[in-house]
Design goal:
The protein starts with a helix and ends in a 6-residue tail after the last strand. Among the domains are: 63 residues, no CATH class; 124 residues, Immunoglobulin-like, CATH 2.60.40.1510. 25% of the residues are buried. It is α+β, with helices and mostly antiparallel strands and 274 residues long. The longest helix has 27 residues. It has a five-stranded antiparallel beta sheet, with no helix packed on it. Keywords: Membrane, Transmembrane, Transmembrane helix.
């Protein structure tokens, strides 16, 4: 017997109200064997019939009471199948934070619309220029190495018919305590600076761009108290120019520095883009 059936029987038993008069009439009819008819006056009933009817009624009520008590007092049935224990939830694994990338050198004067991003070199450095290459800062001559200091100039391969970038590669085997690097771009028509950058920290240099003697001049000056470490470093100037292929033979650069052995100086021109 499940809980639902037990509950219904219990509710029916509690709500049952027996009709004693009706039960007594049925008992009397059964004992006399007579069909149901109008009741006799209470005074005309024989005593034995009344006694027997009372006993039968009491018996029926007692049996009904026992049945109700048994139903009410019977405990609810327990399910035979045990409940399945709840499975604990698995905690989520925290995500591993991403590792930030290495920053690229930032331009000192970024300008929108340049085809080559100003935050990194667009090509590898070329080999050293030979003495007497065209376009040196001092016409007809070049001096690309002085002791621990070496230099080279080239037009970047990303240059096009409207825009160009001139790269100066500087190598030093010893730290430099002073440095001034000058890049001169000849005004061949429509030459206008669009920015510059260098691989050394921007906060270590003062940068200026000026029009001097028919050229756009970029100048990087190392701030007092700062040092250029030994190694290879790149400086670049970016500029627009008149449409068409531009000649760089009149462009040039010059580097003046101080190192452990004293004053150093190199200069030269630019090899064409490849």
């Amino acid at each position: 017997m499940n809980e639902e059936l037990t509950g219904r029987l219990r509710a029916a038993a509690e709500a049952h109200q027996p009709d004693r008069a009706r039960i007594l009439a049925r008992v009397e009819r059964g004992m006399s064997g007579a069909p149901a008819g109008p009741r006799e006056p209470s005074g005309a009933r024989p005593w034995p019939r009344v006694a027997l009817a009372s006993l039968a009624t009491a018996g029926i009520l007692a049996v009904g009471g026992f049945a109700v008590a048994a139903i009410v007092q019977s405990p609810p049935a327990r399910p035979d199948i045990p409940a399945t224990p709840a499975v604990p939830s698995v905690p989520s694994v925290p995500s591993v934070p991403s590792v930030p990338g290495t920053p690229h050198p930032t331009p000192s004067a970024p300008t929108a619309g340049s085809p080559t991003p100003p935050d990194r070199p667009s090509s590898t450095s070329p080999g050293p220029a030979t003495a007497g290459s065209a376009g040196s800062a001092q016409p007809g001559s070049a001096h690309v190495q002085d002791g621990p200091l070496w230099s080279a100039g080239s037009v970047d391969a990303g240059s096009n018919a409207f825009w160009a970038q001139s790269n100066i590669t500087l190598k030093t085997t010893q730290p430099l305590t002073a440095l001034t690097l000058e890049l001169r771009i000849k005004q061949t028509g429509g030459v206008q600076s669009t920015g510059s950058w260098r691989t050394l920290p921007a906060e270590d240099f003062t940068v200026t761009v000026q029009h001097e003697g028919g050229a756009v001049v970029y100048r990087w000056t190392l701030k007092h108290g700062r040092t250029v470490p030994a190694g290879q470093h790149v400086f670049a100037g970016q500029y627009n120019h008149a449409a068409g292929e531009r000649e760089a033979k009149h462009d040039g650069y010059r580097i003046d520095a101080n190192g452990p052995r004293g004053a150093l100086a190199v200069w030269g021109g630019f090899t064409p883009a490849r």
